[in-house]
Amino acid sequence: MGFVVTLDSSFQLLEGETLLEGLERTGHAVEFQCRSGYCGSCRTRLIDGEVRYTRQPLAYVGRNEVLPCCCVTDSMVSLEIALMQSVEQPLLSEEFDVQQTLGLDTDD
What we know:
Layout lengths: L2 E3 L4 E3 L6 H7 L18 E5 L3 E2 L11 E2 L4 E2 L3 E5 L17 H4 L7
Parallel strand pairs: 1-7
Antiparallel strand pairs: 1-2, 3-5, 3-7, 4-6
């Protein structure tokens, strides 16, 4: 089980967990499609450390890149990836009255 450091967080991989599964579990913004190393959608920049592929990826992997969907780490790795940014939705009680805001309030 390895330790993962990202741009704004850090976490430990669980037993049998791929790097992609760990990133998903901890709320990171990582794209993916196949989960098997075929498409390359999850390609992520590796800042430091080493990974081990559980199956050899078919997608191109450049220097200082990893495919988190099919790799694990037994040590510490540092990745250039951030947590997902959630868009805060206003509560219904906080929404403004459109008619009143536009000056269309007819209760005058």
